[in-house]
Amino acid sequence: MELLVGFGISRPEWPPLRRRFREGVPVRVLIVEDDPFVALDLESIVQDTAEVEVDVVASVAEARKHVSGIDFAFLDIDVLDGAVFEVAELLRDRGVPFAFVTGAARACVPAPLRDAPFIPKPYKVWQISRSLLETAGAERAWR
Fold it and tell me: Of 59, 88, 117, 133, which has the highest C-beta tally within 10 A?
């Protein structure tokens, strides 16, 4: 188990994602965020942090279509068509790491998902970068 510094939780390592970064394989990050300004900011932070492909969607319905082939996700809890917990469960079941980035209270996260990293809004740039880098490994991520 690896301790994610800054989150205070233990999670299993994610070797497939780390391997993809090491081998130079394109890594895909999904951002589920319904505020266009926040989505643009998150996309910019992620792209400045690591060499990744980013998909940005604003709803649970859109996110469901993008889950396949994703390597990491940042999830706002409350989006256009409801709560994103169904997507979080799909990601968890597929072994895809994710972090909640939200203005919602941590207490509203269902118990089975509470071990996921939780970044409250307003977030700091370093929190977003660290979440991705600690999960993916920083071997080739910094630009």
Answer: 88
